[in-house]
Design brief:
With about 250 residues, the protein is α/β, with parallel strands linked by helices. The chain has helices spanning about 15-20, 35-45, 60-65, 80-90, 105-115, 130-135, 165-175, 180-185, 190-195, 205-215, 235-250, and strands at about 5, 30, 35, 50-55, 70-75, 95-100, 120-130, 145, 150-160, 220. Helices cover about 45% and strands about 20% of the residues. It is globular and about 50 Å long. About 45% of the residues are buried. It comes from Sphingomonas jeddahensis.
């Protein structure tokens, strides 16, 4: 199994979800008797990840990471910069996820890593809209609309080889456009942009083309469980994952 990085840095200012939960940092929101960060670290260890690093600067988050057997790393200016730093320090393969992936399960991690094809430099886990609506009815997600359906990210990435560094550099350049996919696709040139605008570009083609642009083989892995796309970006997400965690605890 690869090493893993959990992104738990703060974007600065008051986080509305942390404020809603009455804690200092989103990663420290309690859920089912554990903080969200502790749940994520626990799922990674259960999946067989040996070395887990947490990118964070808040002292309480750093302490929480240490308490649960993770190595704190200083968070950089943004998620992509933190990932670049971790890749340089921990090497590839490196699994990347986030502290607000509150429902993360070990079997999702194992399944994702096992399905990444040999020869891929970068892999990203995404879920179809239909799968998300079945698993998490009422949960509002941001969707990428492509010819092969509407997709949402699952906050799980595998930087499988050292060449993935080039993909992280691309991520840094497009991070501000993550909710505006037409701008990202537009970086590929007018041909692919037109295919996207006319609904003729598949997600797999877009990801592969982005990878080729920087010299890496990039692949999409479809999530087997739509619940993997649920993270905690807003108070309604927290309400949902709390209810789901209670149901899971009841068996």
């Amino acid at each position: 199994m690869p090493n893993a990085l959990v992104l738990a840095g703060s974007r600065g200012g008051t986080d509305p979800v942390a404020d809603y939960a009455g804690v200092s940092d989103k990663a420290l929101i309690p859920l089912g008797g554990q903080t969200m960060l502790a749940r994520v670290i626990g799922a990674l260890h259960e999946a067989g990840i040996g070395r887990v690093a947490v990118a964070a600067n808040a002292p309480a988050v750093v302490a929480e990471a240490r308490q649960h057997g993770a190595q704190p790393l200083a968070a950089a200016a943004g998620p992509s910069a933190s990932t670049a730093d971790a890749l340089a320090m921990l090497g590839a393969p490196l699994l990347v996820t986030t502290a607000d992936h509150a429902l993360l399960r070990a079997d999702w991690v194992r399944d994702f890593v096992a399905r990444v094809p040999t020869g891929a430099d970068v892999a990203v886990l995404l879920a179809r809209c239909e799968a998300i609506e079945r698993a998490a009815p009422g949960s509002r997600r941001t969707y990428l609309r492509f010819a092969d359906g509407n997709w949402s990210g699952c906050n799980l990435f595998l930087l499988a080889t050292p060449k993935a560094e080039a993909a992280v550099r691309l991520w840094q350049s497009v991070e501000r456009d993550r909710k505006r996919p037409w701008r990202i696709v537009g970086r590929l040139g007018p041909g692919l942009l037109l295919r996207y605008l006319f609904g003729r570009l598949s997600l797999a083609e877009a990801i592969a083309s982005l990878g080729r642009r920087v010299g890496v083989t990039a692949v999409v892995i479809e999530a087997s469980d739509g619940l993997a796309a649920v993270d905690v970006d807003k108070p309604s997400d927290l309400d949902f994952v709390r209810e789901r965690a209670e149901l899971d605890a009841l068996g």
